[in-house]
Amino acid sequence: MVLMASLAVLGIALYLQQSVAGSQYLSFIIGVGLGVALMHAAFGFSGSWRVFIRDRDGRGIRAQLLLLALTSLLFFPVLGQVFPSLQAASALAPVGTSVIVGAFLFGIGMQLGGGCGSGTLYTMGQGQVDMLITLTFFIVGATIGSAHLQWWLTLPGYGSISLIEQFGWWQALSGQLLLLAALYVLVRYLDIRRNAKLNPVDWQVPPGEFGQRLIHGQWPLFWGVIALALLNLSTLVVAGHPWSVTYAFGLWGAKMWAALGGDPASWGYWSSGYPAQSLNSSVLADTTSVMDFGIMLGALLAAALAGKFAPAMNLSRMRVFTAVLGGLLLGYGARLSFGCNIGALVAGISSGSLHGWLWLVAGFCGGIAGVYLRIWLRVDKPIADKHRAG
Amino acid sequence: MNRKQTRIVIGAAISAAAIAVVVDHTRQRLPEPEKQLASQQAVIIIDEGEELPAESDADCGKPTAAGRQASPCSL
């Protein structure tokens, strides 16, 4: 399996280098790195949100806050044009009703579908077949969302707000780091108040195990933070924009709809600009698509290296139902809110876009609703009384 | 579903996805390198002091800020 995955990575990278214009092969390799990092560090969003909401175990959320802080530290100087030779685009998007509604739906979908934008891809690479259903309906939801987006954008909103343009890059960075630090302290406080022992965001490995852990995993969580931040910066430099995931899902869905005889080009979203260009080009010319392929293959490679590639399917009727509904909400929500936990949350906040912060609040509220929906659907047990009291 | 059936499902999904990519790639023309560069970074030239139209934020079809902002629709 390791050999097959390695050959697939090598073959696709070489083909992209030879046949596809631009730096797509580099984007693909970065995607592979992201898949390895996500898999080896088991870096997820939906599960860590759920254990925090249920048990106040804030380890995963603290790691995400560290990721946001580190990525902001790397992005703000570049986007603030401290290095004029580096021309990169920020993940700016409008602050408005569509972001609030979309992120809330996405938060619910994360809990029902069992994964987020990045999580769906890397668990697919691990061989979890139920995530294939989630991904399929993620694509369907994103396609429907792209058909409806123009209407959602007629609802009240404020347009894009860049903190870097409003305050200057270092002032905005300072304020953002302070806010992230305050959130870190709050999450840590809530964790300690509920749990006797604080799960650390670990970074050390036993002596002599560094090489073994690096290749075969399991990585300490902080390694994942560093790897994801550096690979996100690499994406910004190579592709010219931050890491995003879900745009590709809508594109794949629109292409499939067109192949079935539909006319997505008549929808406002796909009628002009970059979406129209990508709809009429090879899927291999779209950076997000190429990176998504890389993430899946990277996760497959990492799972094989770790001996964790274990095709598994637990397809109860309820699991199929939650995967379908969750996938639809994930896709529709991501399209309305201009991205997922990666393209809107990580890339948005790290780019100094206010919509990223709005996404965080609305998405987390959706996550709380999703956790209680799982309990109502009897997917999870009710939260114990001792936890509610905390 | 047993392990063998699961492997068949995964193999079929990967094969179908690979075929779809190949079909799409062979049907669609590849962009020129110059166009590739401009893809997700919609660039417009704005006179100094001129403000961007507010509605450009919410329109996927129009370019956004001057060279430093991706189209929000490509996120």
What descriptive keywords fit this protein?
heterodimer, A: 390 residues, mainly alpha, two-stranded antiparallel sheet, globular, B: 75 residues, 2 domains
Describe the protein.
The complex is a heterodimer of chains A (390) and B (75). With 390 residues, chain A is an all-alpha fold. Chain A has helices at 2-19, 24-40, 46-55, 59-79, 97-113, 117-126, 130-152, 163-167, 169-194, 210-216, 221-239, 247-259, 273-279, 287-305, 317-336, 341-350, 354-376, 385-389, and strands at 94-96, 157-160. Chain A has 18 helices and 2 strands. A two-stranded antiparallel ribbon of chain A has the order 1-2. The longest helix of chain A is centred in the middle third of the chain and has 26 residues, at 169-194. Chain A is globular. The mean pLDDT of chain A is 93. Chain B is mostly helical and 75 residues long. Chain B has 2 domains: 1-30; 33-75, no CATH class. Helices cover 40% and strands 0% of the residues of chain B. Chain B has 2 helices and no strands. Chains A and B meet through strand 2, helix 12, helix 13, helix 14 and helix 16 of A and helix 1 and helix 2 of B.
Describe the SSE topology:
The complex is a heterodimer of chains A (390) and B (75).
Chain A (H helix, E strand, L loop, with lengths): L1 H18 L4 H17 L5 H10 L3 H21 L14 E3 H17 L3 H10 L3 H23 L4 E4 L2 H5 L1 H26 L15 H7 L4 H19 L7 H13 L13 H7 L7 H19 L11 H20 L4 H10 L3 H23 L8 H5 L1
Antiparallel strand pairs in A: 1-2
Helix pairs in contact in A: 1-2, 1-14, 2-6, 2-11, 2-14, 3-17, 4-9, 4-11, 4-16, 5-15, 5-17, 6-7, 6-14, 7-12, 7-15, 16-17
Chain B lengths: L2 H25 L5 H5 L38
